[in-house]
Amino acid sequence: MWEEHPTEKSDGTLYVVATPIGNLADITLRALEVLRSVAFVVAEDTRHTRKLLSAHRIRVPVLSCHAHTSPEGLEKIVGILKSGRSVAVVTDAGTPGISDPGTALIHLALENGRPVVPVPGPSAVITALSVSGLPPQPFAFLGFPPPKGGRRTKFFEEYATLAMTLVLYESPRRLARTLQDIWHHWGNRRVAVARELTKVHEEVFRGTVSQALEAFGELTRGEVTLVVEGAVASSTPKTQAEGSWKEALADCLAQGETVKDAVEKIHKAFKVRRREAYRTALELGRDRD
User: Fold this and answer.
1) Which residue range(s) make up the domain with 258?
2) Taking the complete model, does pTM exceed 0.85, yes or no?
3) Residue 112 and residue 142 in one domain
4) Domain harbouring 94, CATH code
5) Torsion of CA 168, 169, 173, 179, to 10 degrees
């Protein structure tokens, strides 16, 4: 039996409960006890959460709280807390409040003076960071990059000079484009691509961004966590970017790509003029001769 936290004796408490990111066996004993004891479980996807509860024979009513839940819907959940009944909030996978809709409910509960108690457990951020092979501290968690437009460009430009390990979430359908944007804005850094963590097809790729682009195509499947090497503090963004595309070009040629294919790849990823990339490719070829 887990040791009770003093706050857990209070009524009207919001429990922030971490759930497995893949393997159902990763749920904690304390999480199971809390889920059994509350009046309601609030979930991002009720169907997904009901499967988890069913696997552990937990019969508790499940309410929905997703990205499109109205302020009135959130107020109703806080009203349950005010009535003296406790609620557990969960996300589809991992720790609530980390890049998911649970954040709004947590903030509203705090604003209304309700106790908010963490029930820690799995986190894709920490799981990926721990096996990435990159420095685990300091690190910055950046969440999901904006999907498109000026906000996306600003995102990559804003974090280009952070001299610490960077962790991002990304959907499998945008993985290749995000790797290209990282290559263009941050350079050909070391990266770990963690896919399907704790699941049957778990994979952690470690290498450079250019190598990751070769390894992962448009048909990548599964949730992805990216861990990226931080910027070199002594380098200016301009010289860093120039060095990065030249290094990436050299990598492409070293892997046996034709000059034409390598130049086209560098042109698309770094927005470097084809003529300049072609000239550099010829110089690299002469250096190897």
Assistant:
1) 237-288
2) no
3) no
4) 3.40.1010.10
5) 10
Tokens 């986190």 identify what position? 123
Look up residue 7 and give its DSSP letter: G
List, for residues 239-279, the tens digit of each pLDDT value: 455 567 788 888 888 888 888 888 888 887 777 888 888 88
Distance between CA atoms of 212 and 124, rounded to whole angstroms?
19
Residue with tokens 């120039």: 242
pLDDT in tens, 17-56: 999 999 999 999 999 999 999 999 999 999 999 999 999 9
202 contact partners, CB below 8 Å, separation of at least 6: 22, 195, 196
Parallel, antiparallel, or unpaired for β 224-228 and 165-170? antiparallel
How far is 7 from 85, CA to CA, in rounded Å? 14
DSSP code of residue 17: E
3-state secondary structure of 72: helix
